[in-house]
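name: query_chain
kind: protein
chains: 1
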Amino acid sequence: MDSRYSAQDVVRCALCRDAVAPLYCSVCHTHLCGDCVGKHFSDKSKVHTVVPLEQFLSTLKCPTHPTKQCELHCTQCNIPICTSCISSGKHVGHKAVDICEDFESKKEVLRRDLRELEKSILPRYQESADIIKTQKTDQRKYSQKMTRELNKHGEALHREINTIIQRKQSEIDDMDAKQTAAIEKQEDIVYKALSEIKQLVRELKSLLDTNDIGQVSKYRSRIEKLRKLPPKLIIALPSFLPQKINGEELLKQFGSLSPFSIKTEEQEYVVPSPGTKFSPLDRLFVDVPRLITEIPTKGYHSLYNVSCLSDEEIWTSGDNKILMLYNLHGKLLKTIQTKSGTAPQGIAVTRSKDLVYADDSDSSINLVSGKKIQRLIMLRGWTPCGLCSTFSGDLLVIMDSDNDKQTKVVRYSGSMETQTIQWDDQHKPLYASDYGTKYLSENRNLDICVADFYAGAVVVVSATGILRFRYTGPPPSSTRGPFRPRGITTDRQSNILMTDNYNHRIHIVDKDGNFIRYIHDCDLQHPFGLCLDTMDNLLVTEWDTGKVKKIQYYK
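structure:
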């Protein structure tokens, strides 16, 4: 037989790497020579089954030549082959590898695909499904809210606007139907994919549990198809805009529904590199949070804000006009002076790694790209108090009216205003109107979380602006001072973290506002601003010490 295709001639012992291996451990899938069998059995972690290689190969009957054993695997045809298959000329020029080596290689592909499915792809799809569930509920509530507003305005107009009410209600119903249809269509896509993934996971686990080479050798990875995540559904909901009643101009003055849009946004998926450590779906907290490092800053009497540019670099700002970029070793890498020459009222890093900051002195939002500062947004009649960058690339800006009587959150796509959040369903203000810095953050479920310092609460609304809950801190008996939240951020588990400046600690609550725990270790002194790196390590500023502390709170 041609030595290039003989498994017996080419297979060497996996332990000594020299002698021909006439034996095979069917448990470890390892080729062995006679001298190394004893050494292999010394590994007591498994119950080994060593058989002659010919006996193992005898189970691999060629489907084309039933009397022959399959000793090789044709990589082009992706089938086991025997020496008669080689002689037939059907595999001329094809690469043939040892059947056992191919078996091990395919098992490794199975393990790799299963790991990526369970640890990376499945959680992303499940996250998409959770967001759709929330969108579906919020969209229904929002439509109901608009209907209530419509009817309330209609009561003031009595009989002469009944026809108009019916017309506008019809528009709402039509939008509701289209929005529902779009969400349900997206829901069907995601759940169908989830079902396929779960079925594939079961199949891969079954293949991993079998030693049936015939079944394993037939496996073709479908992981590439599933790496393309479903588009994220984005619905821009309209609002009802009432006008002052005028009998002669009734139709024109009744009001209108602002345009709505339904679009999808492609989600990025980065294929994990070899050796990537996946975060578990439900990460466990460490018993005692650990201080990883302290980054000293210079030039601030009071240090306020921190935002991660990367896992190694952070932007900071405080009570003066200078924005500073540090690495984790405390080296100052870059400084930027605000355009107005005054301290910023909040900073954030965008998806494109640019820095944005709010300037209350001239009511502007500014973009720092390289060394250039571009005025992105100018407010009229309002003053920015804080801002954050969203997962979609939008900006959320919280602002107070110039007379300090109103506060609202506004979403911007570029410099275009696309959403305003100000009132609850009883038309009461969501946020305290006292002027001062307010921090906000978007959660992974697209909730918008605002740390409202003067209200002594964290106010959480859905992506459509519907109030979900208010977290007002612990019972008075468990605190030394009042709960006045400052910085706020959210982690990969959708937990919400907020600084409790007066009590020198950080609160962690889940996405529904249920208290989980405190971080009050690491000698925290007046914690202020917060952000997280890609591994959910916490970076927190101390306003009076000028330090940024990096803290590990997950295992």
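note: Residues 102-265 form one domain.
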